[in-house]
Amino acid sequence: MAPPGKRHRAPSTKIQVIKGRLSKFQAKYLTVDFAKRLVFDPSLLWISAILLLVAELFVNVLVIHRVPYTEIDWIAYMQEVEGVVNGTWDYSKLKGDTGPLVYPAGFVYIFTILYYITNYGKNIRLAQYIFCGFYLITLALVFRIYSKSRKIPPYMLIFICCTSYRVHSIYVLRLFNDPVAMMFLYFAINLFMEDYWTLGSIFYSLAVSIKMNILLFAPALLLAYIASQGIYGTVKHLSICAGIQIILGAPFLLTNPVAYMVGSFNLGRVFLFEWTVNWRFLSEEVFVHPGFHISLLVLHLGCLAIFASPWFRYMKSFAKLQPTGVGILSQLFLLPLFTANLIGVAFSRSLHYQFYVWYFHSLPYLLWSTPYSIWLRLCILGFIEMSWNTFPSTNVSSAMLHVCHLLIIYGIFSKRLPPKDLNVDISKNK
């Protein structure tokens, strides 16, 4: 018998416990406020990222099966690496249907692996599935960068995934080498953000060894090395990068060093006017003129010099605060990297359609680093997409692309000082 004055409390049943938990779940998550946060709150971006990755798997499989594959460079890639498979290490003798081999040694090794996996390059469907894997890995790496940095709202991931036919085409319908290089680059950026500088340098150098457009990130990365690693550390990491290039290129360097260096890192390469996306409004005579190339190089270097000082301030702040482990600090590291790449793209001697992946996944981040309204940011993104989807390019599409690039660069320059509210954001996320 229970003591006087005390009531006997019946034990809670499992059903009551479950109902209680469901009520708490409903009160916390099944609300209009939480639905809005899923769309607009950068801290919840990871939820949208997971859902979109699953959706992209099905979308890419559908594209592979429903949209015809278009042969552009895959056969040429296979022909080029087949020469190495047959024992030819002289770069000057490695050729395909589209011309001589013009990529560094890492490209040869990666595509030699693909050559064997795909039955000497004949199993195109298997190659498409492999590139689908590259696409999903790249997306996961990019989403992780965005989730850590908390810079863009989750709804922008839809624009990254669902609005670009061109990007899906580059990955699973064209099988270019550019996506492979960018995948290694995003691996490197994730490692740098987590303070794994040696591993990051290794992956960065591997990316360069696949295609040298990755060098467009180098000016900002050099400042990051100096700010975070000091002079000794900078020399160490530059040595790592250079050493990997030497190791990978050794068989070719020992056979014909001049042919390898000229062929794989040819900075004076002249592109075909018929494929240009960004300079259609020029005459072909101007397009191929050395004076035009030198002018672009001067403008490129001048723009980098203008941004160098604010970038270095960003990198010093990042190096000082990185030990706190707060993900939002990565904004200080990412903006100089992505901006340096954009500047390189904007002043490129020519852009071909597959080059879109060089900066496509960084565009939302760059646009959200400008002072423009959301509608103007989305309009700029739409006009860029329109320019890259205009085939063949026109005077208007090329000019529009340049206007969009310059608007982004100007917007970033106008906000070149670190945001005043960053310290507030850091304290909230500790």
TrEMBL record:
<protein>
    <recommendedName>
        <fullName>dolichyl-P-Man:Man5GlcNAc2-PP-dolichol alpha-1,3-mannosyltransferase</fullName>
        <ecNumber>2.4.1.258</ecNumber>
    </recommendedName>
</protein>
<feature type="transmembrane region" description="Helical">
    <location>
        <begin position="101"/>
        <end position="117"/>
    </location>
</feature>
<feature type="transmembrane region" description="Helical">
    <location>
        <begin position="396"/>
        <end position="413"/>
    </location>
</feature>
<feature type="transmembrane region" description="Helical">
    <location>
        <begin position="324"/>
        <end position="345"/>
    </location>
</feature>
<feature type="transmembrane region" description="Helical">
    <location>
        <begin position="203"/>
        <end position="226"/>
    </location>
</feature>
<dbReference type="GO" id="GO:0005789">
    <property type="term" value="C:endoplasmic reticulum membrane"/>
</dbReference>
<dbReference type="InterPro" id="IPR007873">
    <property type="entry name" value="Glycosyltransferase_ALG3"/>
</dbReference>
<keyword id="KW-1133">Transmembrane helix</keyword>
<keyword id="KW-0812">Transmembrane</keyword>
<keyword id="KW-0808">Transferase</keyword>
<keyword id="KW-0328">Glycosyltransferase</keyword>
<feature type="transmembrane region" description="Helical">
    <location>
        <begin position="365"/>
        <end position="384"/>
    </location>
</feature>
<comment type="pathway">
    <text>Protein modification; protein glycosylation.</text>
</comment>
<feature type="transmembrane region" description="Helical">
    <location>
        <begin position="292"/>
        <end position="312"/>
    </location>
</feature>
<feature type="transmembrane region" description="Helical">
    <location>
        <begin position="238"/>
        <end position="262"/>
    </location>
</feature>
<feature type="transmembrane region" description="Helical">
    <location>
        <begin position="44"/>
        <end position="64"/>
    </location>
</feature>
<dbReference type="GO" id="GO:0052925">
    <property type="term" value="F:dol-P-Man:Man(5)GlcNAc(2)-PP-Dol alpha-1,3-mannosyltransferase activity"/>
</dbReference>
<keyword id="KW-0256">Endoplasmic reticulum</keyword>
<keyword id="KW-0472">Membrane</keyword>
<feature type="transmembrane region" description="Helical">
    <location>
        <begin position="129"/>
        <end position="146"/>
    </location>
</feature>
<dbReference type="Pfam" id="PF05208">
    <property type="entry name" value="ALG3"/>
</dbReference>
